[in-house]
Amino acid sequence: MNLSELGWSDFFQEQCDSVGEKLIPARVARQDTTGYQLLAEQGELLGTLTGKLRYAAESRADLPAVGDWVLVQPLVNEPHKVVMHRLLARRSSFSRKEAGDKTDEQILAANIDTIFIVCGLDDNFNLHRIERYLLLAWDSGATPVVLLSKSDLCHDLDKKMEAVATIAMGVDIHPISGLTGDGIDNLRSYLGKGVTVTLLGSSGVGKSTIINSLLGFERFETSEVRGSDDKGRHTTTFREMAIMPDGGLIIDTPGMRELQVWADESSLSQSFDDVESLAERCRYGDCAHKNEPGCAVKDAIEAGTLDQDRLKSYLRFQRELKHLAAQQQVQARLDRKNRVKRFSKMMKRRPSKRDLS
Length: 357
Ligand SMILES: Nc1nc2c(ncn2[C@@H]2O[C@H](COP(=O)(O)OP(=O)(O)OP(=O)(O)O)[C@@H](O)[C@H]2O)c(=O)[nH]1
Ligand SMILES: [Mg+2]
Ligand SMILES: [Zn+2]
Description:
Layout: H1 10-19, E1 24-32, E2 35-40, E3 43-49, H2 51-56, E4 69-74, E5 81-87, E6 93-97, E7 105-110, E8 114-120, H3 127-140, E9 143-149, H4 157-167, E10 172-175, E11 196-201, H5 207-215, E12 240-243, E13 249-252, H6 268-271, H7 273-279, H8 296-303, H9 308-348, H10 353-356
Parallel strand pairs: 3-5, 8-9, 8-11, 9-10, 11-13
Antiparallel strand pairs: 1-2, 1-4, 2-3, 4-5, 6-7, 12-13
C-alpha cells in the first residue's frame, strides 16, 4: 500500500520533513497488550515505544492511539519489528475524559474524517446519548454522521428519525440494518481512498456487524447481546483499523459504557446552535435562561419552537464543561509541579551512557 492510501497527506509530510532523521512513517492500526500493530508502505509492522517517548508523555493523549501516524526505525535483523520514535501531530481526534476519577484525555481514534455515531433503533435508542456523542464529535475536527442501526426491529422509524433531526441539526442521519443490509450502501460515499472513518456507540448496537457488512466478510467478531445484563456484551475489546477493499480505512471500537466530556465550552456552539442562537437574543448577556425577563430561550419553549429537554441538556453540558475546565486547571498545576520534580531529579543524577547515545 502506498502512504496516501493509508491516509498520509502534506500535513504529515511537512512534520516528517522537519524531523530530519531517517525514519519511516507508519500508521497505528491496533494497540493491544502485545504492543502496536502498524501499517506502512513496507506492510504490517510490530511497534514498541521508545522509553523517551513514554517518559516525555505528560498525558495518555501524548502516546500513540489507533489512527495515529508515527515515525519508526526497523530493527536491523527483524525489519518487520520497529521502534516508534515520534508521534506526529493529529489533524483530528475523538477524545473522552478517561473513565474514573482521573482528569486525563483518552484518544479513541486519531486522524479521522468521519465519525459514525451508532445508536440502535431498539431499546438502545437514547437521544441524550446521541447528543453527548455529537458534542464530542464536533470537538474532534471530524464530521459526525448518525447511524440508526437495527432498522429491521423498528416500527416507528419516522418518529425516531424526526426526534434525532431536532438534536442533530446539519448532520446526516441514516437508518440501517447490518442484518438485512438495508441502507448499508448509503454509507459507502463516506469512504474512499485515504479517508478514515470510525464507528462509536454502546456495546451491542452493531458496530462490528456494520463494518463486516461493508467489507463483505466477517473481519470483526460479533456476538449476540444477552438480555438486559451487560455480560456477553463488549465483544470488541480493542480499537482496530481495517482497510476497505475499494479504498479507505475503517476503525472498529469497543462499546462504551461511559462517555465523559472532554471538550471546550466552545463546542456547545456547534452542537447546540439552536439554543445558542436564541440565547444571543436574550436581554441579558449572562442570562441563565431560568426566570430572567426578556429570555428568548424561555420564550421559544413557551412558543413550542424549542424543547424543554433540549435546554436541560444544554445547561447540563454547560455545567459539565465548566467543571471539566476547573479540573483541567488543577491537573495542569499538578503536572507542572511533577515536571519540575522530575527535571530536578534528572539533573541531580549523572547522565548514563544510554542518555548520551
Ligand atoms: N436485528 C438486528 N440485529 C443486529 C443488527 N446489527 C447487529 N445485530 C446483532 O446485534 C448483536 C451485536 O452486534 P455487534 O456487531 O457485535 O455489536 P457491537 O456494536 O460491535 O458490540 P461491541 O463490540 O460489544 O461494542 C449481534 O447479535 C448482531 O447480530 C441489525 O441491524 N439488526
Ligand atoms: Mg464490536
Ligand atoms: Zn435567556
